Amino acid sequence: MFKRSFSLLMALLLVLSMFPALALGNVSCELSADAAKAGDSIRVSGTADADTWVSIKVLDSGKNIIVYDAVKSDSHGQYSADFKIPSGASGTLTVVAGYGETVASKTLRVTAPSTDSPGGGGGGGGGSSTTTDPIQVAEEEEPSAAAVVLNDIAGHWAQESIEKLVARGAISGFPDGSFRPDQNITRAQFVTVLVKALGLEAAEGKVFADTAGHWARESIGIAAALKIVNGYSDNQFGPDDLITREQMAVMIVNAAGLSKVADAKQFIDGDKISSWAKDAVDTASSKGIITGYPDNSFRPQDHATRAQAAAVIVRALGI
After folding, report:
1. Domain of 153?
2. pLDDT tens, 237-273?
3. Residues paired with residue 58 on neighbouring β-strands, in sequence order
4. Are residues 201 and 280 in the same domain?
5. In whole angstroms, how far apart are CA 180 and each of 138, 305, 311?
6. For the chain, what is the domain count?
7. DSSP 277
8. What is the pTM of this model?
9. Residue 122 forms part of a structural domain
10. CA 86 to CA 38: how far, in whole Å?
C-alpha cells in the first residue's frame, strides 16, 4: 500500500514539474528602475500564465490606485507594459501585477516631483473641439483610464466588470476620480464603449444630421456601418438621449452577432417590450447577458446605468 501511494505521489510531482505555470499560476514582476521622477516612464514586465490578461496597478502610500492598466501575456507567458508616473506622485509607490489572488509586487521610489510647468509648452493652442463645456467634456469625452482613481466602485455589484473595461481602455472615470456607476448612460456613450471594447472598425461610417459635429460621431458611424445601431430615422440618431434597456439589448445582440433563441424567457412585463426589440431582449436575457429583476420584470423602457452597461458588455465579450 505504501509503495503504491509513493508511486502515485512521484507521478503527480513529475506531471507538475512538466507544467509549472499551469500548476502554480505564478506571476513575476520586474521594473525597469527602482527609482524615478514623476513624469518618467517605467516598464513593468515578467511572466504569467500564457495568453492571460495581467492587471497592472500602481498604488500610492495610501493604497489608492493612481495608474490602472492591463496587458495580455504571450504564448510563452511573457508580458510587459509601460506606464508614466503621474505628476505630483511622491514617496514610495507599489506596483502590483497579476490576476485574482495571484499577484506579485515591486516598490518604486519617486525621487522628486515633476518640475514641468502647467501647460508644458507644446500643443501650441489653437486646437478646436466640438465640445467646449468642461462639464460636457467630463461626462462625454471621459479622460484616459490611467488619469483617474475610481473611488466609488469598491464593493459595487459591477466593480469587476467596470475594472475589466477600464483595463481594456473602453471606459474610464471622471476628473474627480469617480466612476458614477449608477448614473444613466447616453446612446452615444454606450456606443462608444461598445466600439472600443470590441475593437470595431469600418471603412466608412454613416453620419446622421445630429451627429455631424458630435464628439462620438466616429463611433456612432462605425456602429451604424456595421448594422449594430439604427437611428430614429435616416437623419436622427439621438446621441444624447439616455439609452433604454431594450435599446441596449438590440445593440449588444447585433454587436455580438448572437442568434435568435427558440425558447425565450418570459417576463411579467413582456407585453411592454417594443416589437423591434423583442427578439433581441429574448436572446440577451436567455443567454444571461441582460438579466431581469427579482420580480421577473425586464423594464424595457427604463434607462440603463453606467454599471449596467459595463456588465452587459463584459458578459457579451465573455471576459
Report:
1. 134-317
2. 999 999 999 999 999 999 888 888 877 888 999 999 9
3. 67, 95
4. yes
5. 12, 9, 14
6. 2
7. G
8. 0.56
9. no
10. 6
